[in-house]
Every structure is written in C-alpha cells, then in structure tokens.
Design brief:
506 residues, alpha/beta, two-stranded antiparallel sheet
Length: 506
C-alpha cells in the first residue's frame, strides 16, 4: 500500500496496524501448522511403534556386538541367566520334542566300570515348523445288496462352504484372518501359496472370501443388534476408497464403527464392535444404523450425530481427546500460552481418570464429582474469558468454540461413572480398518466393502475378547455350513467363545 493511500487519522492507522498484525499472526500459524503436518509427527504422544522400532535397532546392534566379542565361561553363564529371566518359560501347551545329546562311551575312563546316571541338564528353545499344507481326501464307499437290487447305499457327502470347491473351512478362515487381521492383501497371500507350489489366483481367493462373508452376514447383523441393546455406545467413522468401474476411478465410501466396552469400570457386558459400510457420510446413516438404540452415544465432533438427539431417547457424550487436539495443534508449532494452559487443565482431568481406571461406576462417579467437577466448572468461564480477548477468526477461537458448543456433552461423564472421558475406545477399533485400507488400497466394489465390514466386525470383536479369530472362524463357518439353527445364533457370537473373564483394561 502506498503512502498516499494511507489515511491521516491516527486511530484509523492504529486499527489498520492491529488488523495487519493479526493477519500476519494468522498466516504464521498456518505456515507452522503446514510445516508440522509436512515434516513433524502427527501423533499427540510419542508413537509407541516408533519407540519399539528404535529399541529393536539398539537390541540388534548389541546382539551383534555380543556375538563378535569373546566371553569367559562366567560371562556366558551370567548372560544365559539374564536371558532366562527376561524370556520366562515357554508356554506349557506347546508340544515338546526331546533331543538327547549323550556321550558315546558310558564306561569310566579310569577303571573302565560302567557309569551310572546321576542327573541331567535341560534347556528349551523355541522352534518353528513352517506352515504345512495337506490334502483331505474324502472317501465314501458305495454298498449294494447282491440279492435285493434296491439300489446303491452311500453316506451323504459332507457339507462344504463352496460346493465342489477346494478349500476346507480352516483354509478359508486362514485367508480371512490373513486379510482382515494381519492386513495381507489377497495377491500377497497368492504369492505365499505359490511358494509352496499351490497356484491360486487372486480371484479364487476373493471368491472364497465372498462365500464366507455371505454365510457370516446374519451373525454380523445379530452382533450389531446386540450392541444396540446396550445403554452406552461409541461411534466413529472413517473413509474407505471403493473402486467405481463406471468412472474409471475410486469413490469415497464410509465405514461406521459402533463399539461397546465396559471394561474400564468392570461392567458385566462383554466388549464388541460392529462396522457398517455406507456409500456416503450423511446424517441419515447413523440414524438408520442405530434405529432402536436408546441411551448414551459417545462421539467426536461430527455434527451429523446431533440428529439422533431429536428422538429424545439418545444423549450425546463428547470426546475430550478431540477438544485437546485443537489446543495441541496450536501449542506444538510454537509458543501459545493460552493453548498450553488449556492442555495443562485438560491433563488434570486425565490424571483423575488414570487413578480411577478399573474401579466401579459408583466409585468413579464419586471421585469425578469431587475432583473433576471443580476442574470443569473452572474451565468453562476461563475459556469464555479467553475467547473474548482473541480474534474470532483465529485458530484459538475455533478451538475454544469447539469445546464450548459441546459443553453439555463434555461434562456428562461427571455424573455417570460408566461414561468415558473420550472416544478413544472406538478410535482404536478404527485403526485395523485403516491398516487394511493402507495395504489393500481400496475395496473392489460396494459389495466387497460390505464383506469387509462383516468379517472385520467378527475378527475385531474376537480380538478384544481374547478369542483366537482363526479358531473362531473355523468353528463358526463349519457350524453354519452344517446347518446351525438360527434360533441359537447367539452361541456363535465371538464373546461366547471366551475361556475366561476379561480383566479391566489398564
């Protein structure tokens, strides 16, 4: 701006200078945020996976140094004892194969008398037997009477998942677990089979997955129905690229996740999660999925969930983790006293939750009312006071308004010990979907995405109930194929396969 265009009034000049400073500060904040997004870490805490990778590198380096360095017998004995204490005992259920290493001559080298055994030393090592494929040959003898000529008698053929197909139920279950639990795309699984001399086309494996998903669909529907009977649910959603052949590109679908988990307060109901695929993210989707649900729904800031409250039988509890994230993004790029102070106040809420984790709902409610309640009551006027002092277009104002506009749902946990402070339970359940999406890139069709939701729901519910998904799917598919009655479908839900009661999550 040229000097001729500047006004002569000092007050106007001050206002223009203040506006210019605010605009510059806003642009600097955007630049810092873009730099952190491009070059910095996105997690709000130190990533555990990265820590483990770093520790693995250190351990590998130390192991290489130990292997190259000569050691005395005493040092070797001390190292072996240290490894035994770190390793612990190998599981008792593993089969043991004894290998006896004995001396060749059992006579005394001095007097040549026969030696007698006075003891033994035992050591155990973990061995691996590569996966072994085998062929199950079904033989059905035919019988006929030489006298009566009434025809041939023969046992009925065993039921199969795929009529005339090659795989057993265990093989199909292995493909499902590899794809949706271990995140191995089908083309990689085909390569693994090819190394063992079994040539299976990817389309063949996809056909197996489709048949299994079709049979498991009633179980997925029952799982979602049982979860909707709970008084509390968590909800979240994530994108899902889906191939759109007509356009020659992928379209963006949505996976909706609905989870229940009472372990943080020792509740009686088993945890579970159900995914539902939809082609869009409109508010009608959760309204349709949660038809018949009444109670507390804990969600993030997505406005589409608010329509559920119009029925007067659903209340929304919001997530403090998402509130914290807005201030974290301001405090991380550079100094922001208000954002840092907000983070400290929110950290005090999480410190209270850490102390009461695993206690009963009544105990949690009492402690929250005593400790968290005053913190919440002091935080609201503090946020309103700070909002009045900052530009309404700034990132800080956006973060403050995000919290204040959801304040009723954010303080709902104070008077109910069964409500969590955040939505992290369902966000953890979303991570396997993201990992599979990253490796597989996209779903082949809307139907394929629905199969994905069906199988992933059962597998993830198995995992949070400490149930082996491979054993579970093998047994369930076998039972369904052999005509398990639909009236007893609850016997096939993942938590029915639990061997012991689950402990409260730490």
């Amino acid at each position: 701006m040229s000097s001729d265009a500047l006004p002569d009034d000092p007050g106007t000049l001050k206002a223009m200078l203040l506006a210019e400073r605010m605009q510059n500060e806003r642009l600097r904040q955007i630049i810092k945020e873009l730099q952190r997004h491009r070059f910095g870490r996105r997690a709000e805490t130190l990533p555990e996976d990265q820590m483990l990778l770093g520790l693995e590198d250190v351990e590998q380096s130390l192991a290489g140094d130990d292997a190259a360095k000569p050691m005395t017998p005493a040092e070797r004995s001390a190292q072996a004892e240290r490894r035994r204490s770190n390793r612990g005992c190998l599981p008792a259920h593993l089969p043991r194969v004894e290998m006896i290493v004995d001396i060749d001559d059992k006579t005394c080298p001095c007097c040549r008398r026969e030696l007698h055994r006075i003891g033994e030393d035992r050591s155990e090592r973990l061995d691996t037997v590569p996966a072994q494929l085998r062929v199950l040959v079904t033989v059905r003898p035919k019988y006929a009477c030489r006298k009566c000529e009434d025809g041939v008698l023969q046992a009925a053929a065993p039921a199969r998942l795929i009529d005339g197909g090659l795989p057993t139920e265990a093989t199909v279950a292995q493909v499902l677990v590899s794809k949706y639990a271990d995140h191995l795309p089908l083309y990689r699984q085909a390569q693994i089979y090819a190394r063992q001399g079994i040539n299976l086309d990817r389309s063949t494996l996809a056909d197996w997955v489709g048949h299994a998903a079709w049979h498991l669909r009633p179980l997925h529907e029952r799982l979602l129905a049982r979860l909707k009977q709970r008084p509390r649910l968590f909800a979240d959603e994530t994108t899902a690229p889906v191939l759109d052949p007509g356009r020659g590109r992928t379209k963006t679908g949505q996976f909706w996740a609905y989870a229940a988990d009472d372990r943080p307060w020792g509740g009686p109901d088993p945890p579970g999660v159900a995914y539902v695929y939809a082609s869009d993210r409109t508010a009608e989707r959760p309204m349709c999925h949660l038809e018949g649900f009444t109670g507390i729904l804990q969600v993030d800031g997505y406005a589409g969930y608010r329509k559920l409250t119009r029925r007067n039988d659903v209340r929304l509890a919001f997530c403090w983790s998402h509130v914290r994230r807005g201030f974290y993004e301001l405090a991380t790029p550079g100094p922001s006293p208000t954002a840092s102070e907000a983070l400290q106040l929110i950290a005090e809420l999480y410190a209270v939750e850490k102390d009461i984790r695993g206690r009963s709902a009544d105990e949690r409610r009492i402690v929250r009312q005593q400790k968290s309640g005053p913190l919440i009551d002091a935080l609201e006027p503090w946020l309103r006071a700070k909002l009045a002092l900052v530009s309404q277009k700034s990132k800080l104002a956006v973060a403050i308004r995000y919290a204040l506009s959801r304040w009723e749902g954010l303080r709902l946990f104070i008077d109910d010990g069964s409500i969590e402070l955040d939505n992290n339970i369902v966000e953890r359940s979303i991570r396997p979907i993201a990992l599979t999406r990253k490796n597989a890139l996209f779903a082949g069709s809307d139907g394929g995405a629905e199969h994905w939701a069906t199988i992933a729901s059962l597998i993830e519910t198995c995992k949070i109930n400490d149930v082996n998904p491979l054993h579970y799917l093998t047994d369930v598919i076998t039972r369904i194929v052999n005509g398990h009655p639909n009236r007893d479908i609850d016997q096939l839900l993942p938590w029915a396969y639990r061997k012991q009661e689950l402990k409260a999550v730490a």
